[in-house]
Amino acid sequence: MIIGIIGAMNEEIQPFLKLFDTHEKIEFGKNVYYRISYNNTEIYLAYSKIGKVHAAITASSMILQFKCEKIIFSGVAGGLQGLKVGDLLLATKLCQHDVDISAFGHPLGFIPESQVFIESDSSLNAIAKEVAKDSGIHLYEGVVASGDQFIHSIEKKQWILKHFNAIAVEMEGASVAVACDCLGVPFCILRSISDSADGEADVSFDEFLESSAKISAQFVKKMIDKIIK
Ligand code: ADE
After folding, report:
1. What pLDDT shows up at residue 225?
2. 100 an active-site residue?
3. Hey, which of 39, 141, 142, 182 would disulfide with 167, CB 3.0 to 4.6 Å?
4. What integer is the mean pLDDT of 214-219?
5. What 8-state DSSP symbol labels residue 67?
């Protein structure tokens, strides 16, 4: 089996490089992919760089160039609906909160011939839930809203909540969802909260990026162990 693991930032993939020891570096499309051999499984690990475009390119490259059969995103997010720093969440479906062609009568987040929400893979999500149960971790589940914006105000946060009922915001998940959905590859998105997407979000993000990224990576490593068992 070939599995792709994506983070947005270097800090989000560094914990994996410590969890899996040997790796080969491959450069492709102005990005570095780490090839890891782990228990008869091939893993490609990369950080995409921030934002939906980069993440879509990385997911597509993993699928088309490196033949990944499953894609797992691991990283951090801004928490809505009371989620706190360090909480772990699974995206059941993803949307793009910054898509707006409502001038033509379309709902917010909708692109013709696509859909507002894209669901993540139920089998991978079931594995995530099993890992959470086995490890005694509370795994939050719900809509994750992605956009090319770092959300750092109560007003914007409330707006995203009102229109998409999201439990978290980040900047890549929905684009990985679109790429995987278009190319027919199962995916799931795990995130640990680094901030509350409010006025203090930038300070909280800087403080908790590494620790929250590690929480997500350690969880995803347990998922990999279950997937390949
Ligand atoms: N990733 C982590 N925190 C975020 C925030 N507040 N907005 C967007 N992406 C994030």
Report:
1. 98
2. no
3. 142
4. 98
5. -
